[in-house]
Give the backbone structure.
Amino acid sequence: MATVLIPLAEGCEEIEAVTLIDVLRRAEIHVVTASLTDDLHITASRGVRLVADATLDAVIDDEFDMMVLPGGQPGTNNLNADQRIHALLKRFNQADKWLGAICAAPMVLAHGGLLEGLNVSCYPGALKPNEWPEVQFSNDAVVCDNKIITSRGPGTAMTFALTIIEKLMDEETRQQVETSLVIR
């Protein structure tokens, strides 16, 4: 069974976080949500209260196939300010594991030096091309380059989650989940 770590920071984008958790679990992917603090209760960017499965410290040494960062503000800034997140991103990258970031969260990957030479999608204005000349920016809803999957924002969260299913599992599982969601 594939495993995914989703860190939840205060001020994360709730549509992205909940969509990722829900859709990936529909594919029977083991998703672990982790609070950056000792409090498992997180207040998302629009005031929605989320409850994490564990603290980041409790699962930091566990093995996962992928880590996915929800965006939103100030959630993305909180992720970016946490050195444990940067250490995990480097560990996953060095182990050739999947990484994902949506909305403003590709900024965390950029600050970690993980986007150089890659095609990336993100929320408009979250990363300014003139400040990141080594990154190729795309307006596509979802971009997969190397083992990094990025996406534009709340409206692309479903497609982002389905793409993660396809990469971690297979196209058939993606199609089964997509059909059950009545997307088309």
The chain has one domain: 3-180. The domain at 3-180 is CATH 3.40.50.880 (Rossmann fold). The first strand starts at residue 3 and ends at 8. The mean pLDDT is 97.
